[in-house]
Amino acid sequence: TTKIPFRLNQNQALLTFEDEEVAQRLVKMGKHTVNLDNKIADVSVKPFTLEMGIKFELHVTMSGKKINVSEVPDLSIPEDWVRDKLELNFYKSEQGGGGEVENVSYDKQSRTAVITFLRPRAANGFVSCTKYPFFVNGRCYRLSVSPDTDIHLEKFQLYCGISKKTILLKGIQETEDDEESVQDMIEIHFQKPSNGGGEIENIKYVSKGVTWVCFEE
Q1: Are residues 112 and 34 in the same domain?
Q2: What is the pTM of this model?
Q3: Are residues 173 and 208 in the same domain?
Q4: Where on the phi/psi map is residue 165: left (φ > 0), alpha (ψ -120 to 50), or beta?
Q5: Residues in domain NID (predicted)?
Q6: Do 71 and 46 share a domain, yes or no?
């Protein structure tokens, strides 16, 4: 679900109606006189635009033959030997994966390696194994292991969020009543058809400070 935040400032309210026509009718009326506990308040109804939103699909494909290895220890032996020891170590795996190794790509500078197995699902046994023992010259090191994944975005698009069912009230005067009571009085006013209103799905009023509300697509 795409969620778009909106900043609601002091003495403002957001009202979302069940019927889009009600919200648009109230916007056209512009000014409204609301009775806040025997105190008359002139409020203005404004349309508003949400911030820019982003929509995309994230596709992740996990390789069944490759794993990524990092934190390979800096050993004082030739790189070919390190590759051989990595191959031997993962060939003897007891984690439910592993097996015959097709290729070992090792980068000494970044201390990383990519292990490619011959068996199609050989890498699946390492998915839940984040640290893997690596035995060299009688010492045991811990390698960080993660599955090799291909990640790409599809249907990436920007859009301008507009809620045609929601109105923004400005200029609500402060009263001695608590925030919840004022919110109830605003809701009662804008629910009445005689005031141009209708059924309200949601309402949020802020008397002090600032709050953030989220709109869901």
Answers
A1: no
A2: 0.51
A3: yes
A4: alpha
A5: 13-102, 113-202
A6: no
Residue 97 has pLDDT above 70, yes or no: no
Tokens of 93: 């795996």
**Domain extent at residue 28:** 3-52+160-216
Q: Tens digit of pLDDT for each residue in 197-212? A: 999 999 999 988 898 8
Give the type of residue at 102: E
Statement: residue 147 has pLDDT above 70:
yes
Instruction: Write down the pLDDT at residue 133.
Output: 87
User: pLDDT at position 190, please?
Assistant: 93
Residue 105 token pair: 């790509």
Domain tally, the chain: 2
Three-class DSSP category at 190: helix
Separation between Cα atoms, residue 43 and residue 208, nearest integer Å: 17
Helix (H/G/I), strand (E/B), else coil: 46: strand
Residues 63 and 128 in one domain: yes
With the C-alpha atoms ordered 107, 97, 128, 61, is the resulting torsion angle positive or negative? positive
Contact 24, 83 (CB under 8 A): no
